[in-house]
Description:
The protein has helices spanning 10-21, 32-35, 49-58, 61-70, 80-84, 186-198, and strands spanning 2-5, 26-29, 40-45, 75-79, 86-89, 95-96, 101-107, 117-122, 124-125, 139-144, 146-150, 156-161, 165-172, 175-178. The protein has 201 residues and is an alpha/beta fold. This is Imidazole glycerol phosphate synthase subunit HisH.
Amino acid sequence: MLAIIDLGVESEKQIGYALRQMKIAHVYANTPEKLADASHIILTATGSFKDAMQTLVAQKLDQALFQHHFKQKPLLGIGLGMHLLFTSSDEDGYFQGLNFIHGHIIPIDHQRPCCPHQGWEWLSFKYPHPLLKGLSEENVYYDHLYHARVSNNDDVIAHSESGQSIQAIVARNHNFGIQFQPEKSGDLGLQLLYRFSQINH
């Protein structure tokens, strides 16, 4: 069963609605016990890196994610959820992440850190990957202030160019991250969620 981590944010409902459109069975989980039997986990969050990470720790969901990771089960982080998969972040200070994918989260615009990257951008595939199988490059919708500086460029499987390169989709073994909002990105976004649900561990 696919589980969406329940941190009480609106984006979880939007992802759940997208999954229902494709008839993908899922549950919402806010305890380690509810996550223990999940075959796939989606982590989406809003707000700041610090607050989201502290919430995971307070609810012991970080430990559940570590167990999921050690069992090599598929995990997808979306938006801020993708950022949490990385080693660390500069958002509102320096904070440690889950370190499932090596890299650091930095502002898109160091001169204007409160100016978001918002709108539609072309998504370019870097190389073939099971998550992208059968999909075509299209425009996708972004709304974020920070992005990933990935340590290993081979972990980036898709990107967008908006004055600078945005690491749009990352993949490291059974861990995946999507920077844009798949639930607002038309058929391509929905198909990415479907492809994730079909990946076997």
